[in-house]
């Protein structure tokens, strides 16, 4: 009593320390100002248990109108725990005649149990996110850490939650307010502003967007200069994945992915579209084509979608549209029913998807599967069979696919674009996550390039002749694949079947595996070799463009 200070805040600080030592939380009470100003004349701070809890009984009832109103389903009232006990503990300060603030009343008795010392840090009055903490949280959020991850990091750094100075709920609430601040004025406008900023730093940055009749964002596409450069080198294969709806507006996210010369994924662009109509896909593909200088890919892989197929035929009529077998496999799993638990069925179905080399082999295995598991007439399997030319290896390995027709490559490509986003992610949040993913991909590529420039591949086989040349021109990843095939070739037996003028036909098979036999054709005049397995056409070949023999891809170069 009678203690004075220059400011109210100074007295509040003393009272907070007192509350922390004793074991209770405080909150602001009544404030009286000087008439016509914001100068505080009197201020009261009370125990957090002061007053009574509002249980909703005191709310005024609405007056019933004469016009009948359709009854609305009322929300179940939230059960609120009683935390107020009409405690009279308080501190009242008043400005004295000297202009200083003086303690004029201090009630120290409480009518409730005080908090145990190990729980003091949970008091609301002791929890505060300081400016230094705010900066740290914002930095971690920009780096891609989730709200929970950033809280756990700060708690560990502080030596435990009790030493951090704020609770997990405070942390999550601040992160939410931070997100709302970032998208103030409209999320679509915010991400568009980000695009313009990107354009200032990267003159070759490209983006386009469309609005609907209400002025809301309908479609958005963007790519940077590095994506254009990658597409110019590795753009023979393009994977469109339109299966993501991981944002709060239910927009379809369509990352456009390729594969570089280290068998790693590279991004060519990304888009948001509002629906899966032909018109939306046509806009996306035309915008993508325009951003890449009109270049068309050799092969385009998509999920099973008729609208996308029609759009590809319009925009890229000379490209080969193929269905991604990984998506087929995932869709089939949801339709197996009781067959999900049958390992033999999965093995048979996967063999039809990935393993069949010849058309006869595929047709035989497919009919056998339908008969054995009574699937004849099943609509989904009938539709998939009608589209067999777009996914069956026996019918699709006459063109370059970078191995995406295989199970391992396809799954790797589609899993890699799973950004850490969910249905509450805003567009600005997604763009930040997207950039983080691209940076990781490019960092991986730099590391692979560095390894290739500083090392020479080793081999269990003598590095001479063809194998030595492969080690000099292929990246380390591709050399391992080539080495495996080279090892198989050593273990094969070639038998001349017949010869016709300048053409020779061989049966090549792995020793002790007669079922692996393939027919190899060699034409003397053109010095060309072809095999019924068509692995060379699918994984690496040359094609004629503009009358010149140009490599259809540059996967094998360092």
Automatic annotation (TrEMBL):
Residues 14-115 form the FAR1 domain. It holds the Pfam family MULE. Residues 237-331 form the MULE transposase domain. InterPro entries: FAR1_DNA_bnd_dom, MULE_transposase_dom. PANTHER family: OS01G0519700 PROTEIN, PROTEIN FAR1-RELATED SEQUENCE 5-LIKE. This is Protein FAR1-RELATED SEQUENCE 5-like. It comes from Spinacia oleracea (Spinach).
């Amino acid at each position: 009593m009678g203690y004075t200070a220059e400011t109210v805040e100074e007295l509040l600080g003393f009272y907070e320390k007192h509350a922390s030592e004793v074991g209770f939380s405080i909150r602001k009470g009544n404030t009286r100002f000087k008439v016509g100003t914001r100068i505080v004349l009197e201020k009261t701070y009370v125990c957090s248990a002061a007053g009574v809890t509002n249980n909703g009984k005191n709310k005024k009832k609405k007056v019933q109108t004469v016009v009948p109103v359709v009854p609305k389903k009322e929300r179940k009232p939230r059960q609120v725990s009683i935390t107020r006990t009409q405690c009279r503990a308080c501190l009242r300060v008043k400005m004295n005649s000297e202009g200083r603030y003086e303690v004029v009343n201090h009630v120290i008795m409480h009518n409730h149990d005080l908090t145990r010392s190990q729980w003091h840090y949970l008091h609301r009055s002791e929890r505060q996110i300081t400016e230094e903490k705010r900066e740290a949280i914002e930095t971690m959020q920009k780096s891609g850490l989730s709200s929970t991850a950033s809280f756990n990091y700060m708690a560990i750094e502080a030596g435990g939650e009790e030493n951090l100075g704020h609770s997990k709920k405070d942390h999550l609430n601040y992160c939410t307010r931070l997100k709302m601040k970032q998208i103030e004025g409209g999320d679509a406008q915010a991400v568009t502003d980000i695009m313009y900023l990107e354009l200032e730093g990267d003159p070759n940055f490209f983006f386009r967007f469309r609005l609907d009749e209400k002025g809301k964002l309908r479609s958005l596409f963007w790519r940077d200069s590095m994506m254009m450069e990658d597409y110019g080198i590795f753009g023979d294969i393009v994977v469109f994945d339109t299966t993501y709806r991981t944002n709060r507006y239910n927009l379809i996210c369509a990352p456009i992915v390729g594969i570089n010369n280290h068998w790693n994924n590279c991004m060519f662009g990304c888009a948001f579209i509002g629906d899966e109509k032909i018109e939306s896909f046509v806009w996306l593909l035309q915008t993508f084509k325009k951003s890449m200088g009109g270049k068309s890919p050799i092969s385009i892989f998509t999920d099973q979608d008729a609208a996308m197929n029609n759009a590809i035929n319009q925009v890229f009529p000379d490209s080969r549209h193929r269905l991604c077998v990984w998506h087929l496999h995932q869709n089939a799993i949801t339709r197996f029913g009781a067959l999900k638990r049958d390992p033999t069925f999965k093995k048979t179905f996967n063999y039809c998807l990935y393993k069949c080399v010849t058309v006869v082999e595929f047709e035989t295995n497919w009919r056998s599967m339908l008969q054995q598991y009574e699937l004849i007439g099943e609509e989904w399997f009938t539709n998939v069979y009608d589209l067999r030319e777009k996914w069956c290896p026996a019918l699709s390995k006459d063109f370059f696919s970078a191995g995406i027709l295989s199970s391992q490559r396809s799954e790797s490509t589609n899993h890699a674009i799973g950004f850490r986003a969910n249905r509450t992610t805003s567009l600005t949040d997604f763009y930040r996550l997207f950039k983080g993913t691209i940076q990781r991909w490019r960092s991986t590529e730099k590391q692979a390039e560095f390894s290739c420039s500083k090392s020479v591949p080793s081999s269990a086989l003598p590095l001479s002749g063809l194998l030595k040349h492969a080690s000099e021109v292929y990246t380390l990843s591709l050399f391992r694949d080539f080495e495996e095939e080279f090892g198989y070739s050593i273990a094969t037996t070639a038998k001349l079947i017949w010869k016709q003028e300048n053409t020779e036909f061989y049966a090549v098979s792995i020793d002790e595996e007669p079922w692996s036999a393939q027919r190899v054709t060699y034409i003397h005049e053109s010095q060309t070799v072809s095999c019924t397995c068509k692995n060379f056409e699918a994984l690496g070949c040359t094609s004629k463009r503009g009358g010149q023999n140009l490599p259809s891809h540059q996967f094998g170069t360092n």
